[in-house]
Design brief:
Blueprint: E1 2-6, H1 11-20, E2 26-30, H2 35-47, H3 52-56, E3 64-66, E4 72-73, H4 78-82, H5 86-90
Parallel strand pairs: 1-2
Antiparallel strand pairs: 1-3, 3-4
Length: about 100
């Protein structure tokens, strides 16, 4: 099972959550729902080299996909991108962004 770190206020994560929420191959963990989830994500982010480029850009690194072998990816899996969801798109405001400068997530 792939663990997916997301946050309900992240526009990219909203789409991923909507598309993977009923998929038993993915465990969705919202890092904003409990401090223990945030701590687990921060430990991963602080210790895994996959986040080096993400941190260099000033990004958070979510959505983050962690496979069973501990591999980290920031690419949305094919099954998530292949299934379009009007509900996911409708819940995202135009121009929504996570970065402090208003660009991207």
């Amino acid at each position: 099972m792939t663990t997916v770190y997301v946050m309900s206020t992240c526009p990219d994560c909203v789409q991923v959550k909507a598309r993977l929420s009923n998929n038993p191959n993915y465990e969705l963990i919202d890092i904003g729902q409990h401090v223990r989830h945030l701590k687990a994500f921060l430990h991963l982010r602080d210790s895994h080299s996959a986040f080096d480029a993400v941190k260099a850009k000033g990004a958070v690194g979510i959505p983050c996909f962690v496979d069973e072998q501990g591999g980290v990816s920031f690419e949305v899996p094919k099954e998530a991108s292949a299934n379009s969801s009007e509900e996911a798109s409708a819940s995202i405001l135009d121009g929504a962004a996570c970065n402090l400068d208003g660009t991207g997530c």
